[in-house]
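FORM 7B - TANDEM STRUCTURE REPORT

SECTION 1: FIRST PROTEIN
SEQUENCE AND TOKENS:
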Amino acid sequence: MGVHHDHRGHGYGRAITVAAAAALRQMGSSTATVCTPSSNTGAVATYVSAGFDRLLDVADFRRPT
């Protein structure tokens, strides 16, 4: 999910996230999980405002090939 940078800060990301969670609920899901880098503060704020709880931070490791 993403919102074009010209339209951020108007609650569209939260609305999309809440609508997606509601659709999952209607399909029988009891939970939803999202993964985003903790450095993506905008996404973290969006998910928290949509009712998600922050569970843990996971370290990502990459190696050039």
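SECTION 2: SECOND PROTEIN
SEQUENCE AND TOKENS:
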Amino acid sequence: MKQKTENIHDVRGRGLMFGVQLSQEKAAQGPEIQAELLKRGYITDFHRASNTFRFFPPFIITYDEIDRFNKDFEEIVS
């Protein structure tokens, strides 16, 4: 994900829990990105102090759902 767009500064996590830190330039749009993700059915947490989206997907998530989320997130952030 980080390699596909300049708008992502870092991706980190453990297990299914992960965070995506936006670049300084894109961070101001964090709340708008979060609203668009919610419209598409994704509940996320945007931490303004670190410019980071935090994701806690359910344990029963499928590979197709992960792929769809990655595609949607990259589209919205780009």
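SECTION 3: OBSERVATIONS ON SECOND PROTEIN
The chain has three helices and four strands.
Strands lie at 8-14, 17-22, 45-47, 52-55.

SECTION 4: SIGNATURE
Preparer initials: ____
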